[in-house]
Design brief:
Layout (H helix, E strand, L loop, with lengths): L19 E3 L9 H5 L12 E7 L7 E8 L4 E8 L1
Parallel strand pairs: 1-2
Antiparallel strand pairs: 2-3, 3-4
């Protein structure tokens, strides 16, 4: 395992694609760069998944933990819980 420093919104494009990305710090919105670094589904395997806390999802106050899963031509979004 190696350590990288930099802007977390940019992810690590040189190391992509990823099966999973876990973000610990809340964001105002889901960074597109991270979505595009998720592995696309292939041969019966699911696409990569991103778990990230997001501020004020759907107008709700506070943070919500959001799961994004890459599908063959889009992303599936699921709000998991308040954090």
């Amino acid at each position: 395992m190696d350590v990288a420093t930099g802007d977390g919104y940019l992810g690590r494009p040189d190391d992509a694609p990823f099966d999973g990305i876990l973000v610990a710090a809340a964001a105002a919105e889901i960074p597109d760069a991270l979505l595009y670094q998720l592995r696309q589904p292939a041969h019966g395997h699911r696409g990569g998944r991103l778990v990230i806390p997001i501020d004020n999802v759907g107008g709700a106050s506070g943070q919500r933990l959001v799961l994004m899963e890459r599908t063959s031509n889009d992303w599936r979004r699921q709000v998991l819980d308040q954090v």
